[in-house]
Design brief:
- By secondary structure, the protein is mostly beta strands.
- It has one domain (19-127).
- It is 7% helix and 30% strand.
- It has one helix at residues 19-28; strands at 35-39, 49-52, 62-67, 94-108, 113-127.
- A 5-stranded mixed beta barrel has the order 1-2-3-5-4.
- The longest helix has 10 residues, at 19-28.
- The radius of gyration is 15 Å and the shape is globular.
- Residues 1-24 are annotated as: Disordered.
- Residues 1-13 have a biased composition (Gly residues).
């Protein structure tokens, strides 16, 4: 999942700011010893979503699998509850994520990818509706991977 282009089809459906607004937002965001994370839920997968360093564009983000030994991910819930109280309810929410990359790769069987493992130690929800992730052309489909890092 690096560099790539648009991997899905469909009409853009994520809304959000203009490219200029997003660039300005990233340029002025707080810096620190944390990551900005965007939850990306695709049915049957077990990756968590994308992480990037403060001040870096989303095109630099990495799709990660959380190691939850030190902290549970925000949506660690049953997959059978009401829509707003089940695993994946927080798709596209933006978080401030604390922790570190372990240096290990984890095989995510349902997407057939080796992904970086991130040791989660804490998080803070920032935005429930931040809009598009990589491009205003983004199309989210909950049943297949349609979002990959790329420049505007």
């Amino acid at each position: 999942m690096s560099g790539g282009g648009y991997s899905g089809g469909g009409t853009p459906n994520m809304g959000g700011p203009t490219v200029e607004e997003r660039k300005a937002q990233i340029a002025t965001e707080p810096r620190g010893d944390f990551y900005y994370g965007r939850r990306y839920h695709v049915h049957k997968t077990r990756f968590w979503g994308f992480l990037r360093k403060p001040g870096q564009p989303w095109s630099s983000a990495k799709l990660v699998v959380f190691n939850e030994k030190m902290g549970k991910q925000p949506d660690r819930l049953s997959e059978m509850g009401p829509p707003d109280q089940r695993y994946g309810f927080d798709n596209n929410y933006e978080y401030r994520i604390k922790g570190y990359f372990t240096g290990e790769k984890v095989y995510e069987i349902n997407s057939n990818q080796f992904l970086p493992e991130f040791m989660l130690t804490g998080y803070e929800q920032l935005d429930k509706d931040p809009g598009w992730l990589f491009s205003p052309r983004d199309h989210y489909d909950p049943s297949r991977i349609t979002l990959t890092p790329r420049s505007y």
